[in-house]
Specification:
The chain is an alpha+beta fold. Helices cover 27% and strands 25% of the residues. Among the domains are: 108 residues, Urease metallochaperone UreE, N-terminal domain (HSP40/DNAj peptide-binding domain); 90 residues, Urease metallochaperone UreE, N-terminal domain (HSP40/DNAj peptide-binding domain). The longest helix is centred in the N-terminal third of the chain and has 18 residues.
Length: 382
Amino acid sequence: MAKKRDYYETLGIKRGDSEVEIKKAYRKLARKFHPDINPGDKSAEERFKEIQEAYDILRDKEKRQKYDTFGHSAFEQGFDPGRRSEETYRHRAGRRAPFTDFGGTSTGAEGFADFGDLFGNLFRNAGKGGQTPGPSQGQDLEYSLEIDFMLAALGGLTQILLQKESVCEACLGSGAKAGSRPQTCPVCQGSGMAKIVQGTFNFSQPCSRCAGTGKVITDPCPNCLGRGQTVKSERVQVKIPTGVQDNSRIRLAGKGGPGQKGGPAGDLYIVLQVAKHPFFRREDDDIFLDIPISLSEAVLGTKVIIPTIDGKTTLTIPPGIQSGQKLRMRGLGVHHLKGDGRGDQYAIIKIVAPKQLSSKARALMEEFARLETENPRADTGW
């Protein structure tokens, strides 16, 4: 079996990076290697799976702590954290006997540090009770989706391809091979808690053999290797409401991570990013469009056919219009996301002077200049 890459290396981050930095790195890589972006590219698909696996571990505080302590082996079938913890302690203590002398003999700062590490977990685990964890809801997932400008403005349907953990179909999430079932843990006798005696103190903590579940899998499912979950690809249809904007969130109930022990699945949150349009610009629910017109059209007025998000329409331009002037077209903007009504469309006039003139046109313009009486700089106060 090929050696797994370090999860931090997979996401291109450092061990001390925050949850925000982890999520930022994941989103950048997921967009680059997502199967929808790289159709038919098997190497990109495998890279995406690596990225997803690393993110699933590092975004979860408990899983990240286990990974930082034990590495990939923490998530292998039959992993025994109690044995690993004991080995770690013996190594750190330099194979010294555990500190149990409460008298006046000093062991130095290092000895007290080991003492604190040894008992810290015991005190933290005290009082958690001996009940086996029951069903729990799956994790909520987040998916960044870029959509077309017109889809955001008008709404509609689109599809996404998800690769996520799902309940194993072979064992229905039990982790046990078909025809078998998890057995009562022989260490804790099904209580999920193990008793630890240290000197005159008695403590209880989750059983390291069954991880506090009270059950062990003796014959694991070959499909999921006892995990009860597998990574599956799923196409999900997403309904885009009219009027969504950048960072709008759409909740798909039950499309998140699978529940544990029969618990309900989490939710999937689609975070939208709206692509730019070649000529429409949007501000809130209003749309802006530049309208180039000739000098004669500006002077004499005209009618021009222009685009809107609903199709083409005729815009009347009055005589003497100025460059930069906005003409308001009521109700031709984006539908409001909440409530009835729509924004407006604004046509912004851009007067384009001719770059070349025929001799006849130039003569007419010179004649017009001689007849013109208005001075456009008269009111500047210069």
